[in-house]
């Protein structure tokens, strides 16, 4: 029980530190979202008074003329209410509405692709590592080559071959624009069809790392004493591979999977940009381009929560999978 309490305490402190950094970093950057929004208003012929500026500052998440500690307390209070401010890029839309509108697209696309890449890579790595030096080892340089190709270049190659030349898949977008988004079969099938090409790009670019890591860990695990003891006892190769070698070799991959799963929320900015996919990565890029600090702060907050949450879950599962991690040294 003390192991789990220590982990919960550590992540609580990490969350507070992340929230504090999320508050501080945008305020250290040049520019001000209030001034950016008021500049747009002046370009349209509007007048700006001190009262107008204060009203816009409150609208965007708080009064920025007060002391820093007061702004920090207002920031925490707004977070507790779920108020992330108003987006300058999508004004007058709230930051939470912008994020929640694009987050499901990224979670489904990048989440499913990450899980598939991890499962296929670990499974193939376990098979290749069980019999190193065979023809199966040729999978390793092939997948490593795919991982070494620049991400955007691989996306462009697949787009050219599968969409432009063969015409099997749509070129870009998240769904057929002629359809109305909704929970109906026609729209869901269209969204799945449009997601195949970007998902394939993510899987091909990611699977090499999982395969290589699992293969090397599998080869290393086969020389451990407990594996040699299991072989001496006459256990079947299948049982040794599954219950002894693969189970222990996969532990580092579990930690890596937690980090990858946490960063699913951030999406794949390059992939979404190449395929014009309506995910959170495109929103983040737009926020950076337009100096939309409120939206950047909101996206970073969701990324932080996802990474910490994923790592917390895996840390707790680690304690159940491997009792050695619960021992205090």
List the helices and strands and how they pair.
Elements: H1 2-28, H2 33-43, H3 50-59, H4 68-80, H5 95-130, H6 139-148, H7 151-165, H8 185-221, H9 225-232, H10 237-249, H11 251-262, H12 269-274, H13 280-289, H14 293-321
Helix pairs in contact: 1-14, 5-8, 5-11, 5-14, 6-8, 7-8, 8-10, 9-10, 11-14, 13-14
Task: Explain this structure.
This protein is mainly alpha-helical and 329 residues long. It is 72% helix and 0% strand. It is globular. The two termini are 16 Å apart.
Keywords:
globular; 14 helices; single chain; about 325 residues; about 0% strand; mainly alpha
Q: What is the structure about, briefly put?
A:
By secondary structure, the protein is mainly alpha-helical.
How widely separated are the two ends? 16 Å
Tell me the helix content.
Answer: over 70%
Structural class: mainly alpha
- What's the count of strands? 0
Question: Strand fraction band?
Answer: under 5%
The parts where pLDDT drops under 50 for at least 5 residues are: none
Instruction: Report the C-alpha radius of gyration, rounded.
Output: 24 Å
- Secondary-structure element sequence? HHHHHHHHHHHHHH
